[in-house]
Amino acid sequence: MSAGPPEGPPDSIRGRVRRPGRVGPVAVIEGFAGRRSVVPFAILVLCLLAAGLVILLLLNTALDRGAFQIQAAQKRRSQLTDRQQELQLSLAALSAPGALASQASALGLVPNPRPAFLNPSSGAVLGVPTPAPTTAAPSPSPSPSPSATPSASGTASATASPTAPASASASASASASASAPGARP
User: Fold this and answer.
1) Which of 12, 81, 92, 134 is 20 to 30 Å apart from 74, CA to CA?
2) Three-state secondary structure along the chain?
3) Which region ranges are annotated with the description Disordered (predicted)?
4) How confident is the model over 26-74, as pLDDT tens digits?
5) What is the domain partition of the chain in residue ranges?
6) Please, which residues have CB within 8 angstroms of residue 171's CB and are 6 or more apart in sequence?
7) How many CA within 13 A on the CB side of residue 173?
8) What is the pTM of this model?
């Protein structure tokens, strides 16, 4: 005998050797044992695509909502700018010298032909302060007359009418003394 490897299995175990092609009632096909199914991968890819589409839809909706809010804010800014310009124009019209002069004359004020000026840094009076000449004291506005319509209580209207002329004459004398030349408040 030679000292090399044996030529095959001994006769005692020859009946127990299994062949790779057949294992019991199930047959093993060579080369297919390592392959996995494609179905779970396809389902995973479809789920990822669906999730991506939903995310894109939500993102697009949020961007559109933001665009509408920006458009509404720009419209509001435009309206406020227009309102500001209107107010500036009305202020300029009310601040015009002619408008101020007419409002002052309506209040009974008269222009002073010889005004005095103050120096803000030193506080010195420049010029001789003289009161403005007045033509006449402004006439007091007519007081409201007591109403001739009867009220629910006859005694209330009778007591109200005698006091109304007294208060009107008191206010007329107060306004006359306040508008007198040289009078100080």
Assistant:
1) 92
2) CCCCCCCCCCCCCHHHCCCCCEECCEECCCCCCCCCCCHHHHHHHHHHHHHHHHHHHHHHHHHHHHHHHHHHHHHHHHHHHHHHHHHHHHHHHHHCHHHHHHHHHHCCCCCCCCCCEECCCCCCEECCCCCCCCCCCCCCCCCCCCCCCCCCCHHHHHHHHHHHHHHHHHHHHHHHHHCCCCCCC
3) 121-185
4) 766 665 555 678 899 999 999 999 999 999 999 999 999 999 999 999 9
5) 40-92
6) 140, 143
7) 5
8) 0.38
182: left (phi over 0), alpha (psi -120 to 50) or beta: left
pLDDT (tens digit per residue) in 134-177: 766 555 555 555 555 544 444 444 444 444 444 444 444 444 44
Residue 24 token pair: 């019991």
Distances (CA, A) of 184 to 105, 125, 154, 177, 180: 20, 19, 44, 10, 9
Chain centroid, CA 33 distance in Å: 69
Which residues are CB-contacts of 131 (< 8 A; sequence separation ≥ 6)? 112, 181, 182
